[in-house]
Amino acid sequence: MAAGVAFTGAWILNATDLAELQSQTELRTGGGFTWPEFVRRQWRRATELTPSWYRVIMFPALAAGFADKRSRWPAILLFMPPFVWTFGGREGAFNHEFWNLPWMAAIGVGTAALLDAIRRWLGPRLVQLAAAGLGIVLAVSFASIVRGQTYDIYLGLPTDAGALVRDVGPPAGQQQAFVIENLGAPRWAAFYWGLRPVSVTEDNIDTIPGDDLVVIRANLLPDWVPEEALDSVVAARGRYALVPARALR
Fold it and tell me: Measured between alpha carbons, how far is 56 from 47 in angstroms, rounded to an integer?
């Protein structure tokens, strides 16, 4: 662990200077929000990323992981980094939902300890019945993730961008696939149009040919895009649209 800390510290200092490191530390440990707002945000993120049964067992699982002497130190060592990462770098955790994914490692170890405690308490016969019930719960939860809110947020709704560029090709002569900077669909544009994807920003919009089409998310435009850009939509699907580059200036 000491070697890992030393190696990481050397890598950080090699990549930047102390002033930049101090600036980043101040940024990540700040934030214009209260602790209650922070905790509510983390719980809302947990409800978006995990099924309900997981949220029910996460705290008993951690408690079991800490209580069982066989799993205590693995659980503690896996628990401390995400704890410091989340509550120390709270500005990042407030803005990025994936900040909390490392918690699952400690909860996984704790879940093993919890299930083993239940096994010893129930006995072999009831354990078989409990395992069957758990299997059903897992199957239902997986189905809800695959076709539920999580699917819609991360997969279902974004695929409209791919369908849009699949059905509407670029104008003749367009040499690059332009995608607005806050949209995570450059791979789809590159795949269906066979063109190199380019992120469109306020800095490069003036260099893009006016008739070239840009993929945008109509309900979440950057501040620098004029509101009347939506009056020039060529095609749309769901929350995504294609507009000429000149409309974004």
Answer: 11
